[in-house]
Amino acid sequence: MKWVMFMKNPKRNNKIPFIALFLIHSGLLGYTFYKSKNKKQLFTLLMSNIGFAYLLEFFVLNLLKAYKYKPKIMKSNYFDNILGAILSQAIFVPFTAVFSTSLKLGWIRKFLLGGIYFSLVELFFLKLKVYKHYWWRTKYTLILIPLYFKISDWWSIFLSRKNPIIRFISLFLMIMVTEANLLFVFASARKIRFGLGKHHSWTEHFIIVPIYAISISIFSTLSLLKQNNWGSKIRILVISMVIDQIFKKRKIVKEKFKVADYYTVRILVILLYGKYRDWVYGTGNNGEEELDLINE
């Protein structure tokens, strides 16, 4: 009855369906971590899944404008759309994929939990008008989500086998997700904006941001691959400064940071990336072995 009243109420709160899904999927993830014996690997898998979703969203949402989210949480419609995408691609779908992988669900259950469930959610959101299709179709969701869940299974297997390529990509995705989320927070606080020309539009910003985040992430991953020490961290800091200066010189980025704030945040995330490296490869210099295997 409440949902019927919500659908008929012209002043309905668009946040409600997003909050409801947030609570449901957070519960699934909490249960998954509670039951897991290897929480570091599970976290690596989760961040990798989010990274895959972000890369797909870059093309489908940012470039190709397949759909639009309307949670009405943020004042700016553009940021509200991106926040809706973050909730979907960083919480709803990845949390459920990790839950599915942890429970070792077969194809039929994957199709039911992934394809059918998310297709029904999508149709319901369309009905509530908190989500809008442009060229996207629900049948794409029906097919792609179970496949995404299966990729999560394969990724988990290769992480367990300590596959060097999978571990390298996982570390890269973990750093990329963190950079992308951090840049979203900075942009929403009007501290940074990317673009071309004199006036930087938000459309340009969200097209360029992934390029910036990917650049930082690649160099950070390569720096940490061999070992996690202060030399690696200083190298990442220097590389970050160089990339930032290149974007500034080209007038691709406008920033409103105090110098102390910028370096504080950058140093803290670099320390976090060192932790990521240890969670993926283990402590010590195990990364040398991985590098040798890749070179072979």
What does this structure look like?
- With 296 residues, this protein is mostly helical.
- The chain folds into two domains: 1-161, no CATH class; 162-296, no CATH class.
- Helices cover 76% and strands 4% of the residues.
- It has eleven helices and four strands, in the order αααβααβααβααβαα.
- A two-stranded antiparallel sheet has the order 1-2.
- 35% of the residues are buried.
- The model is unreliable at 1-6 and 285-296 (pLDDT under 50).
Throw out a few tags for this protein.
296 residues; mainly alpha; 2 domains; two-stranded antiparallel ribbon; 4% strand; disordered N terminus
Count of discrete structural domains:
2
Instruction: Give the strand line-up of the largest sheet.
Output: 1-2
Coarse morphology:
globular
Query: Considering DSSP H and I runs of 4 or more, what fraction of the residues is helical?
Result: over 70%
Q: SSE order in H/E notation?
A: HHHEHHEHHEHHEHH
N-to-C CA distance:
63 Å
Main pleated sheet: 2 strands, antiparallel
List how many beta strands DSSP finds.
Answer: 4
What is the CA-atom radius of gyration, in angstroms?
Answer: 20 Å
> pLDDT below 50 for ≥5 consecutive residues: which ranges?
1-6, 285-296
Strand content: under 5%
The class by helix and strand makeup works out as mainly alpha
Q: Note the total helix count.
A: 11
**What value does the average pLDDT take?**
88
